[in-house]
Specification:
With 90 residues, this protein is mostly helical. It is built from one helix and no strands. The chain has one helix spanning 2-89.
Length: 90
């Protein structure tokens, strides 16, 4: 009987060790999955940031172009008004 008890005790310890190993493997897989999700989210954030930076640059370029056109239109209006005044003053 003592041998049978020690075999049962050894099997119980083995089962417990295997269960602990399975839990550790499951936890490791979960940590890897979460890490992959975090890495994917970081890549998405970087891609969004790059896209937004490009859109901001394009918007700034467009605003600068519109400002330049606005100055040219204003200059032409002033010239036209001066020409009209000169004609009216004759």
């Amino acid at each position: 009987m003592p041998v049978e008890n020690s075999v049962e005790a050894a099997l119980a310890a083995l089962r417990q060790a295997v269960g602990g190993l399975e839990n550790a493997v499951d936890m490791r897989f979960e940590a890897e999955r979460e890490s992959s999700e975090i890495d994917a989210e970081v890549r998405r954030v970087h891609a969004d940031r790059a896209r937004l930076a490009q859109e901001l640059d394009e918007s700034q370029f467009r605003a600068n172009s519109l400002e330049e056109v606005n100055r040219e239109v204003s200059r032409r209006l002033v010239t036209a008004m001066e020409t009209i005044r000169a004609v009216l003053d004759r």
